[in-house]
Amino acid sequence: MKQVRWIGVPIAGILAAAGVFSVAAAPLAPAAPVMTPRSVAHGHAISGTTSSNWSGYADIQSGAYTYVAANWTEPSYKCNGHSPESAAIWAGLDGYFKTSPTVEQGGTIEICSGTTQTAHWAWWEMYPGSLFEVFKVNAGDKMFASVTYGTGSTPYDIVVKDLTSGKSLNKLEACPTTCNRSSAEWIVETPFFTPGGIAYLPRFKAIKFTAGLASQAPNGGSPVSIASFTHVSITLTNSGGTTNRAVPSALTLNGQGFSVKWLSSAP
Asked: Which residue stretches of the chain have pLDDT < 50?
């Protein structure tokens, strides 16, 4: 698949404080994957894909998704001094298929400044709208994110909670265009910056997703595991597809979790 969609703009003040870009050069950020079909033996009878900026899992069963959720522990990153250098962790709906140009999502992001690990931020986005960073998160905090599709004029309920600090965001939003809800995702991502392109990936210990759930029932009812739907694993590679940068593990026995392992930094 050759679709790429740019999903957000981290607020300029954060980038300026991080010493990454000036206010006038705020980056476009996390982007949808450029997918290449590839068989990956990760269990649960899945087929895998590679991406230039995503690593994780996507549920892609026919039908409209109404719920996605996950827990993870916010990692501590080791920055290598490259620019741009950044990682985002999120759960969301849409964006996997070329025919699905929107993304409804929430998670955390960290942008390196030289070799310094800067502040981590909780954020939400309704692409093609802007990305909004809302509150600071500490490495080691237990995180939760979910997106629920319900009813009414603002049917999308995006939640990000820091279960350690008690901070949270809860945004009720409308789709900015036509949202197909054709996929659900659990992703570690290298954002795309202008100028700069796809970011270097700061080193991290394996990021473990747990309680990975999705639903196609009304109002997100009766959520089930990642493995309960048709799903694919996504390996993050460099732009040439010659080097794996981050790779997901097999799903856990309950089908709700997996880990993403860092392998290489360069885009």
From this structure: 1-32, 34-46
Instruction: Work out the number of other CB atoms within 10 angstroms of the CB of residue 141.
Output: 19
φ, ψ of residue 122 to 5 degrees: the values are -80, 140
The CATH number of whichever domain residue 79 belongs to comes to: 2.60.120.700
Q: What is the pLDDT of residue 239?
A: 87
What pLDDT was estimated at residue 192?
87
pLDDT at 100: 87
In a domain, 241, yes or no: yes
